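Bumping my old thread because nobody answered last time. Still need a sequence for this structure:
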């Protein structure tokens, strides 16, 4: 149901807004997962989209799991152990698989608390900008569970194993300034400046050729888990393809002619 996830496109930039502020924007409900995956597939297929911003409605980014559903053992949390494992695989775990593989650059504009799966959702994005009111917590142990959506893989890659272990094993939150110090976010801005800052960054990304943006992001992703030799080989292949594009020729000519380029994705 898209009312749980708002979609807005302005030129080459799409904004996805988690839209259940009364519940602190949980991300584990099946209909939310379905809507999120559908929007990601739409974005993937649309070459006009060059950047995505993900943010939350209301005072928080996302609380992660739906605590009422956990208490009542419904939805993702219904059934026995085998059922719940299947629910995770066919539910919330589809988000990290899909978002990690989404080739369009993604910015998390973290407007408030990002807890549990909400914190992990920010980690699936390429760039994180935080409001001064943002708080991050890998707090699964505080509700008697473990990171079930890839956080144990994502968090150490963002801030290193020692700090990731501290966040995961204490379950305690860190504020925006600590997140900046630890490298979890790239900048902290005044709360009212968050979305303007995110849109400005998205615009600076979106001025670039769309296919090259997607290939560059793919290389960054591959570089996190492959050796340099295979990455160099993949880079050579991608580079050869880029040299054949009209956008490459346009970029070179625009620089030589000292004008702004116009990119078409060709």
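Sorry it took so long. Here it is:
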């Amino acid at each position: 149901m898209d009312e749980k996830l708002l979609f807005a496109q302005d030129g080459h930039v799409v904004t996805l807004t988690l839209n259940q502020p009364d519940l602190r924007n949980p991300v584990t409900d099946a209909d939310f997962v379905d809507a999120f995956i559908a929007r990601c597939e739409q974005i993937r297929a649309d070459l006009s989209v060059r950047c995505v911003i993900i943010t939350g409605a209301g005072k928080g980014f996302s609380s992660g799991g739906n605590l009422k559903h956990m208490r009542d053992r419904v939805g993702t949390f219904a059934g026995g152990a085998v059922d719940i494992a299947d629910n995770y695989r066919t539910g919330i775990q589809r988000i990290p698989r899909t978002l990690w593989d989404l080739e369009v650059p993604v910015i998390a504009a973290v407007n408030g608390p990002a807890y549990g799966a909400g914190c992990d959702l920010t980690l699936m994005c390429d760039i994180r900008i935080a409001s001064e009111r943002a708080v991050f917590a890998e707090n699964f142990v505080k509700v008697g569970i473990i990171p079930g959506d890839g956080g144990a893989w994502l968090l150490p890659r963002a801030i290193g194993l020692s700090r990731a272990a501290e966040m995961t094993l204490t379950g305690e939150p860190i504020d925006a300034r600590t997140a900046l110090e630890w490298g979890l976010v790239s900048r902290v801005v005044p709360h009212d400046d968050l979305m303007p800052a995110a849109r400005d960054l998205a615009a600076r990304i979106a001025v670039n050729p769309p296919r090259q943006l997607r290939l560059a992001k793919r290389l960054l992703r591959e570089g996190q888990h492959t050796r340099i030799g295979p990455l160099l080989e993949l880079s050579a292949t991608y580079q050869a393809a880029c040299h054949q594009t009209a956008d490459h020729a346009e970029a070179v000519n625009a620089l030589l002619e000292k004008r702004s380029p116009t990119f078409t994705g060709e």
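The longest strand covers residues 5-10. Let me know if any region looks off to you.
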